[in-house]
Design brief:
Elements (H helix, E strand, L loop, with lengths): L14 H5 L2 E5 L3 H13 L3 E5 L2 H10 L4 E4 L8 H10 L8 E5 L4 H9 L4 E4 L4 H59 L1 H16 L6 H33 L5 E3 L1 H11 L1 H7 L2 E4 L6 E3 L1 H18 L5 E8 L4 E7 L7 H5 L19 H11 L3 E6 L5 E8 L2
Parallel strand pairs: 1-2, 1-3, 3-4, 4-5, 7-9
Antiparallel strand pairs: 6-8, 9-10, 10-12, 11-12
Helix pairs in contact: 7-8, 8-13, 9-11, 11-13
Amino acid sequence: MFPNVYSSHKAMNTEKEIQQSTVMVIDDASDNRHLLNLILKKEGFKVMLAKNGETSLAALAEELPDIILLDIMMPDISGYDLCKKLKADERNHDIPIIFISAMNQSVDKVKAFSVGGVDYITKPFNHTEVIARVNAHLDIRRLQKKLEEKNSQLSQEILERKAVEEALQQQNKELDAFSHTVAHDLKGPLGIVVGYTDYLINDPSGMDSEELLPIFEQLRQAGQKATNIIDELLLLAGVRKQEVQPSPVNMLEIIRQTEIRLALMIEEYKAEIIVAEDWPIVIGYAPWLEEVWANYISNALKYGGSPPKIELGYTEQDDDTVRLWIRDNGMGLSQEEQSMLFTEFTRFNEIRLEGNGLGLSIVRRIMNRLQGDVGVESTVGYGSEFYFILPKA
């Protein structure tokens, strides 16, 4: 409990803060209400007056004060019961309640604190004491709010720091995977180049042109594979760093351009490709979407049936997005194989996967940057459908 008399210099409130504070007085005695109204207004407070519990609840529904002065003995509901009711309501829970009553027994004061009161003033009250106690509890409430704001700010900073740490951990994982890819995938084709080169250096004149041609073809293929790996690694890094502005794109034009790009591969696999004619306009970035289709189509060519039969189409969805898909007639994927797709540098089957395993990682990263989504639906023995989802223009 606070001392009976507070010196004026104890009040921490500035004049501006006091003027911004509202005190609610709930007392059935009109003379007490009138006196407290005069005292509080003289000190610059805004005052709300209520003659009983019912009128106070109606007033609180319209406006919340910063602090409440509450009488105990009232005709409709006691101050104790009203305090419990106010504290049970989340809207009013944090408002400090000072009991002000002629009841001066210890048991009355203990009960006042037990139901949620923060202080107790005995009638007849001293004017200076009332103002000092009101100011003290307003200061405490202000400090509590500042502490809550600081805690909230610290919590937000912790969350942001955690997000940065998680991003760094993810980048470290990707760097490890990147190192593994460079070491493992480039080692294969470069090993072929080094091996044949050593062989030719040691015996430069012991082979005729017919024997050399297959070796040169192996060297060419190994060099091309190494070049493809480097290009895809550069593309993967570029998608992370490059800033682009998504805009409406003509998907059919992108697909036709991709077909031209893969024309030799399509001819080699003797593939049949069926493309829908009327495509909706979606929001994306054309160069990246060409890479998505190039990866999807090249995978469908390699892992489709013999010969591959590939269909490209779309499905407009209810949430103003478009699901763009490619279906193949391959052997399909198990659930375990599907779960390993679209992750950084993951091979799900060394025997089946002739490429370097970067393509679907690039697709995933592109969709992340374009706020899209990727996925696959497949049943073993019935082919696969790879898709990506973008917003409709």
